[in-house]
Amino acid sequence: MKPTIVKVQVPLASNQPIRGMEHGLVYAEGRKNMVEQLLPRDVTKALNGDFKGYFEAFWSSTVGWAIGKRVEEQPW
Fold first, then answer.
1. How buried is 69 (Cβ within 10 angstroms: 0-12 exposed, 13-18 middle, 19+ buried)?
2. How far is residue 38 CA from its own chain's centroid?
């Protein structure tokens, strides 16, 4: 199965930090399968302070996006 490219956006501010993890908005092009979910440490580390980035991911209707490696910026 080929991964989908998703956009990961983190909020500029949050009043509910979770130690070692943060929430992010994750969706595919056209805002397909848009969810707010916890981002694993490797994803927040790959963002490196950026508020958005694009990643390879696989969709599961039971757990949301399984996010993989960061990829180059996309035109959407």
1. exposed
2. 9
pLDDT (tens digit per residue) in 34-56: 999 999 999 999 999 999 999 99
The 3-state DSSP class for residue 1 equals coil
Tally of CA atoms within 13 A in the half-sphere of 62 that contains its CB: 0
Helix (H, G, I), strand (E, B) or coil at 56: strand
Q: What is the pTM of this model?
A: 0.89
**Cα–Cα distance for residue pair 39/34, rounded to 1 Å:** 14
Handedness of CA 44, 48, 1, 6 (dihedral sign): positive
Alpha helices in 4-56 (DSSP H): 41-47
C-alpha–C-alpha distance, residues 60 and 46, integer Å: 22
